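Job type: complex structure
Entries:
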Amino acid sequence: DIQMTQSPSSLSASVGDRVTITCRASQSISTFLHWYQQKPGKAPELLIYSASNLQGGVTSRFSGSGSGTDFTLVISSLQPEDFATYFCKQSYSTPYTFGQGTKVDIK
Amino acid sequence: QVQLVQSGAEVKKPGASVKVSCKASGYTFTSYEMHWVRLAPGQGPEWLGIINPSVGSKTYAQRFQGRVSMTRDTSTNTVYIELSGLRSEDTAVYYCARALSSYHGMDVWGQGTAVTVS
């Protein structure tokens, strides 16, 4: 199975901050990497698909980059509604696997 | 609008089975793969498997082989997951989620079904 390692596991940030979350795959996954946001009690929501493509309806504050084994999610200017947990997920091969998550909370 | 509506919460005893449904509406049911993902408290999401509603083909995560079964009913646009031999570690919220392909990610999710094994 492909292991996905996210960092950091949690971070505290202020509104307006630029936030960077990284995800590393245990082997090359090309660009089959997706980012999701989850808020308490809600289902995850797709933010970025295939490493760098913004999902329709998602604010352009979110951007993704990377290929191979190293990927990054950036929130350019953190807003109150962005405090949530973020997961990466690979769909290069089954079983699809997720990172352990990055919880972003208010400093 | 596009939505996936799941069945309600379940409480099961160890060793029992649970069957969760996911009814799709607002799109062509057979055009999207359907995945099942679970989230347990304090853990990252876990992928259980995928079913192709068009042809009924399935791929299960190896660690659930023999315990999981996914089916679909094209007459009602519903997919099902059944998990047998339940243990306390299966306590989680189970989600269905559709994806156009492995390139596109899971763009619509059900509301989740809490399964408690106790």
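Summary: The longest strand of chain B covers residues 18-25. Residues 41 and 81 of chain B are 20 Å apart (CA to CA).
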